[in-house]
Amino acid sequence: GQSLEQPSEVTAVEGAIVQINCTYQTSGFYGLSWYQQHDGGAPTFLSYNALDGLEETGRFSSFFSRSDSYGYLLLQELQMKDSASYFCAVRGKNYGQNFVFGPGTRLSVLP
Amino acid sequence: DAGVIQSPRHEVTEMGQEVTLRCKPISGHNSLFWYRQTMMRGLELLIYFNNNVPIDDSGMPEDRFSAKMPNASFSTLKIQPSEPRDSAVYFCASRLTGGTSYEQYFGPGTRLTVT
Fold first, then answer.
1. Across the interface, which of B44, B45, B106 has its CB nearest the CB of A44?
2. A45 pLDDT more than 60
3. Taking Cα atoms as reference points, which of A42, A88, A23 lies closest to residue B35?
4. What are phi and psi of B113, to 5 degrees?
């Protein structure tokens, strides 16, 4: 089955860089996704890594290493609006393992 | 595009009552997902449809839960009878399978409270 682990909380100041890690135990999956969710809102897609390496989208970057069962989301030039929960997610290849989300990391950006 | 539409946005009901949640996916999307989110269990996939056919319903908690997708533009999630432990936010999401993006588009959610 799928099991993902993330830190529960991270705190940083405006302008800083923060890395949110995601480790997983899985029997096989297609890739690693990241979603952002503000309080009271719906998850919104940030990135997807199908292959090992770093994907950059503006201030956000996502890294994936299939062999190390590890990935991370890197947020640069933090802004107050980045305060939210961040979820990693995998899509498994087998019944019962589709679209498993991690427990989420709550990021607080301080002035 | 209006995005994924869910109704109602809030539902308060008494234990034992039937609850029906509705979802309209983004036009042209062929995959639809129902998720449940609670503080204790996080975001869980309940069921996943592709081209209106249920592909993975392993997350449906028990027989009290049922989901249908009669056509490409509408899906329902029904709970009968409802119990207090069903209180949660229920999200519907859709995506275009086979496209270049792996993004799922989430609706605003239905906050269900069972008393």
1. B106
2. yes
3. A42
4. -125, 120
pLDDT for A60: 96
> Is the pLDDT assigned to residue B1 strictly greater than 70?
no
In this structure, the number of other CB atoms found within 10 A of the CB of residue A25 comes to 10
B67 — pLDDT class (breaks 50, 70, 90): very high
The values of phi and psi at residue A81, to 5°, are -70, -10
A3 falls in which pLDDT band (50, 70, 90)?
confident
Most B CBs within 10 A among A9, A45, A88, A95, hence the mutation to make, goes to A45
Q: In the structure, how many helices (H) and strands (E) does chain B have?
A: 0, 11
For A28, the token pair is 């096989």
Tokens of B50: 């592709």
CB-based contact B56 A102, cutoff 8 Å:
no
pLDDT band at B100 (very low <50, low <70, confident <90, very high): low
CA neighbor of A109 nearest in space, from A55, A43, A44, A36: A36
The answer to whether the CB atoms of B107 and A42 lie below 8 A apart is yes
Cis peptide upstream of residue A111 (ω within 30 degrees of 0): no
pLDDT tens profile A78-91: 999 999 999 999 87
Q: Long-range pairs for A62-69 at CB < 8 Å and ≥24 separation?
A: A62/A32, A62/A34, A64/A31, A64/A32, A69/A23, A69/A24, A69/A25, A69/A26
Residue B104 to chain A, least CA–CA distance (Å): 7
